[in-house]
Each structure stands twice: as structure tokens, then as C-alpha cells.
Task: inverse folding
């Protein structure tokens, strides 16, 4: 058998033998000792290797900001039993130093599981390519929340100088979908946090982002959360603010009463004042301030 035929035969035998067999084949080509490989400068780009965890630094452009600890523990337990099913992706930035492109959850869970090494695809990429690959792979593979997707889209556009249409082509979404996510970043931070934490759905968010008045956005958001409004009811509140089904049912309040009280308090405190009234006629008054001086002015108003 010729050398070429023997190589082809080994390649065919390797198919279907699982991840460990593939890693063994890769090691036989690159050298079984990764430290020697790195020390001798043998190029491993484009191959799959088992890399020590302490050689890998996390990705600064990781779009996911929050990892559920219970889910990580479950993944770690699965890794202890089954091993890593899907390798992570890294780029080589120096001898014995790699930077994660995708697979943050698998990397963190592997550390919890007590592994020393992890299978990884090694890719070559400059800084911009790494940013683009990391964000796109995570957007496509991970179960990101709406705010994480929106922030990833914005980062991709800024770092890679992409227009919305170009971004849509990169991530396989139409332009209107990209636009809807990017508009979430214009919402007040309290609403963004609620979306991130799963307290407010994307449907609710799209309703609120259609409003230009941030104070009105906050008023409707607070009622939406407190009274557990459906998307349809929020849409009705925006479209028909004086609808009997939207106005509080308790007490003698109506839309004109609320406006009257709000205007009176605003005039008294010389500040924007917002009201939150529930269906039982109970509520609260919010008076925002931007500095200690403004707070002192509010105090003086009360003490007059």
C-alpha cells in the first residue's frame, strides 16, 4: 500500500469514531505534546487541539453579560459525565496564549467541572475579524436576551463599520429586525434592565419604543409591570389612553384628574412629577432630581 493510500485509509477509519478519535488524529499530526508544539513554534492554526484552560483568556467582546449559575452547574455536571460535545473556538495570539472566540459557557463550565484541558478549534483572525466572528457566532448559537442582541448589533456596527443592511446580511436577519433591536438601546435604562431580566417581553418593548416621550414610556412601563399588562393592553393604552379599561378603576380618578394633580405638584416643586395609580385607587408620586442642589430645592419647597 502506498503512503497516500495508507493516509486515505486512516482518514476513512477516523470518520465516525467520535471527538476523542478526531483529537487523537489531530495530535498525531501536530505532535502529542501541546507544550512542545507551542514551544517549537509548529503552526496549529485551522486544526482542533486540546488546550490547557489556563492558556485561554476570555473574550472581551462576549455579548452575554449574565450566566445563570444553576444552568452552568448543570452543564458542568454534563461535561463531567459526557465530556465536551462541541469544541470551543479560539484564536492564537502568542505562544501558550489563546483568546476565546466562542464557547464562553462551555469554557466556564469546564473550569467548574475541574477539567485541565478543553478541545478547541484554532482559527487565525486579526482583532476586527475576531470581534466579528465572536459576536456573530454567539448571536447565532447562544440564547441571548433581546438587550444582549441589541448591544451586540451596535458593537458590530461600530467596530466593523457596518451599516444596518450589511449587519443584517452578516447575521441573517432583515433590516427591519435589526432596526427593531437597535431601537431598544434608546429606551430608559430601567426598561432595558427589565427586558434583559425577562420581566418585559420584546412585544412590550416594541410598543414602548414607539413613543417619543421618555416620561410617558416610564409611566406606562411601571403600570405594565405592576398590573401585568398583556402586549395588547399596552397597545391599547398607547392608542386609547382614556379608555375605561386602561384608567384606574378604584376611587374617583380619571385622566383629567391625574393631569390636574400632576400639574399642581409640578408647579409646587418646580420639577417633573409622575403619578402611578393602581386599579384600587392607590399609588405613588415620583419627583426626580439630578443633584444634591436640586434635592435641597425640593426640601425648601416642602419647608416653606
Result:
Amino acid at each position: 500500500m502506498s503512503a497516500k493510500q495508507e493516509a486515505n485509509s486512516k482518514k476513512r477509519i477516523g470518520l465516525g469514531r467520535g471527538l476523542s478519535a478526531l483529537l487523537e488524529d489531530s495530535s498525531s499530526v501536530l505532535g502529542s505534546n501541546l507544550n512542545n508544539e507551542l514551544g517549537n513554534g509548529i503552526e496549529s492554526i485551522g486544526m482542533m487541539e486540546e488546550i490547557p484552560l489556563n492558556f485561554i483568556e476570555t473574550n472581551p467582546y462576549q455579548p452575554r453579560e449574565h450566566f445563570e449559575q444553576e444552568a452552568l452547574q448543570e452543564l458542568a455536571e454534563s461535561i463531567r459525565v459526557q465530556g465536551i460535545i462541541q469544541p470551543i473556538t479560539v484564536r492564537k495570539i502568542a505562544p501558550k496564549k489563546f483568546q476565546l472566540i466562542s464557547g464562553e459557557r462551555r469554557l466556564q463550565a469546564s473550569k467548574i467541572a475541574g477539567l485541565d484541558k478543553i478541545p478547541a478549534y484554532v482559527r487565525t483572525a486579526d482583532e476586527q475579524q475576531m470581534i466579528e466572528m465572536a459576536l456573530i457566532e454567539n448571536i447565532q448559537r447562544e440564547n441571548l436576551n433581546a438587550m444582549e442582541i441589541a448591544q451586540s448589533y451596535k458593537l458590530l456596527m461600530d467596530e466593523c463599520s457596518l451599516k444596518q443592511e450589511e449587519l443584517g446580511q452578516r447575521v441573517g436577519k432583515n433590516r427591519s429586525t435589526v432596526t427593531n433591536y437597535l431601537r431598544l438601546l434608546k429606551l430608559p435604562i430601567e426598561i432595558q434592565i427589565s427586558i434583559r431580566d425577562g420581566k418585559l417581553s420584546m412585544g412590550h418593548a416594541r410598543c414602548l419604543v414607539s413613543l417619543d416621550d421618555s416620561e410617558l414610556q416610564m409611566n406606562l412601563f411601571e403600570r405594565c409591570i405592576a398590573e401585568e399588562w398583556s402586549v395588547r393592553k399596552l397597545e391599547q393604552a398607547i392608542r386609547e389612553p382614556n379608555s375605561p379599561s386602561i384608567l384606574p378603576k378604584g376611587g374617583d380618578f380619571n385622566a383629567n384628574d391625574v393631569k390636574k394633580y400632576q400639574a399642581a405638584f409640578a408647579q409646587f416643586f418646580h420639577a417633573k412629577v409622575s403619578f402611578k395609580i393602581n386599579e384600587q385607587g392607590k399609588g405613588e408620586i415620583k419627583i426626580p432630581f439630578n443633584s444634591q442642589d436640586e434635592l435641597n430645592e425640593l426640601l425648601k419647597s416642602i419647608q416653606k
